[in-house]
Design goal:
Layout: H1 44-70, H2 75-87, H3 95-102, H4 106-118, E1 122-126, E2 134-138, H5 140-160, H6 166-199
Antiparallel strand pairs: 1-2
Helix pairs in contact: 1-2, 1-5, 2-4, 3-4
Amino acid sequence: MNGHDVDIETDPKTPEVAENPPVSELFVPLTIANDGLLVDGGDQVFRKMVHAFFAFNARHETIRDGHARRIGLAGTEYTILISIAHLGQDAPVNVKTIAEHLHVTTGFITNTTRKLQSRGLARKTQDTTDKRKTNLTVTPKAIALLEELAPFQRPVNDAEFGSLSRAEFLQLSEMIQRLVASGEDAARLQQDLENCEINT
């Protein structure tokens, strides 16, 4: 061996080559136990679905924020404004109505509607049948902004959900409502389990 040769068996700078164990020897615990969710005894389909949910949600939020930005609003402000506008077409709405519709706290709705009020986009009015109640409505200024947005919004929304047939769209709409409810149950269960660990 000359002065330029390196003994790879003794040179401390040479990294050791670790042998990767066969894939069959690696075991990742299942993340679900419900037989209705397991496919061929595994959770790979479940994991793929969950990660796709994350990806879709991120893209949908980007789209929502883009709609909001076009009319000078933050994403959450736009969501609440358009919820007041659409729900208010069918019946009077208040803070509780919007909070239940969006599955958020009444405090969050109250704080955001104050911002919309300060910009002249929403207002509170006394209920005509129950003077103790205060309803939320949008202003003509808000409707003008939504009308300005609509020509840009429609093709984007059509493209986002264009891969679904009408039957699939209706089925997904119903399924999402059930998943929101079961998701809330799961979040409560997770909190209960954490509290049990703290108290033991």
